[in-house]
Amino acid sequence: MTSETPNTVPTPEQIRRAPKALLHDHLDGGLRPATIIELARETGYSGLPESDDADRLNAWFRESADSGSLERYLETFAHTCAVMQTRDALVRVAAECAEDLAADGVVYAEVRYAPEQHLERGLTLEQVVEAVNEGFRLGERRARAAGNRIRVGALLTAMRHAARALEIAELANGYRDQGVVGFDIAGAEAGYPPTRHLDAFEFLKRENNHFTIHAGEAFGLPSIWQALQWCGADRLGHGVRIIDDIDPGGAAGAGAVSDAKSGEVRLGRLAAYVRDKRVPLELCPSSNLQTGAAASYAEHPIGLLRRLNFRATVNTDNRLMSGTSMSAEFGHLVRTFGYTLDDMQWFTVNAMKSAFIPFDERLAMINEVIKPGYAELKAEWLFHAAAPDNGLTSASG
Ligand SMILES: O=c1[nH]cnc2c1ncn2[C@@H]1O[C@H](CO)[C@@H](O)[C@H]1O
Ligand SMILES: [Zn+2]
């Protein structure tokens, strides 16, 4: 029914106002360029490639991250981490993160960072976590004062090339009722399989705690398979390379599923498992274009994965390096695939279902915030004639 209403392909303004849920966003990948410059001055960091012009610094991050290689992409984080080494800097960056997401219409976000990367100036792991939590609470309050509601949970990341995963998993577990909702591993994927950190994942499973794993981004199916079947990940960070186990020209028979556009599509055992088990995929289209995991938005696997009803979600990964936001990501998808408000709601509900907060809270967020928000947007076309000129906006011209 709704697909026949005239206004279901959202405008940029509707995309921004639509309630959005974000599961994959790096705190150290989302700083405001002006904040980086100010923090570098305040803390005496002299290594910035552009130290007096926020626009040029912004452009530098985007261009440097555009290399087609995950390893080169990750090099840019040296500069953001360098200015996130004091309590005040962490509070500020976390608060601005929550405010920026809220201003973009994000109502729920899980934001990740690696505490071990913020110890250069003497902070302990606990002090890092407490500073970031304080910043998120501050940002939530400021967002509220500005008329936006957001709830932010932290994910603690361990770096996969290092050997601190168990320690970070224990840290995440210790703060699980104080703002930390789960655990993750990140960093270069090739050469650092998830099973290197099996002890951390086994610990979290024994504690009935939650974790996601960056897998299937720069490396393919073996990484996804290990993350799920050896490590027991609740979600896949990216997971986009699951496409390697899907044959779009597959013939009918075992593993065949029908796709409205391609006809019969054949899923391998792993892809079928991911779909059948509703394993959430934290897809990050713009980031994938930069690291070479996808060639263009049109060719991004999200189109097929959505049609096949995988548990796909839309995410930013690194707003600074990709010059993106949740609204920008949805904007690309709306333009590329013609997605409607119903599609946006589908991705958003998928994300909320896959969040690491308790079930009753996820359900309330879906029923009390997300669905009413989309219902309101979907009804806007009914009032189109009355909306733009109601006498309230004309004074500002
Ligand atoms: O897309 C990604 N794949 C793998 N690792 C990443 C990605 N984005 C960021 N990081 C890594 O995660 C650390 C903690 O936030 C960042 O410092 C960066 O090294
Ligand atoms: Zn990531």
TrEMBL record:
Pfam families: A_deaminase (PF00962). The keyword Manganese does not apply. GO terms for cellular component: cytosol. Substrate binds at H26, D28, G187. Zn(2+) binds at H24, H26, H214, D317. Keywords: Hydrolase, Metal-binding, Nucleotide metabolism, Zinc. The active site is at E217 (proton donor). Binds 1 zinc ion per subunit. InterPro entries: A_deaminase, A_deaminase_dom, Ado/ade_deaminase, Metal_Hydrolase. Residues 19-371 form the Adenosine deaminase domain. One of its GO terms (biological process) is nucleotide metabolic process. This is Adenosine deaminase.
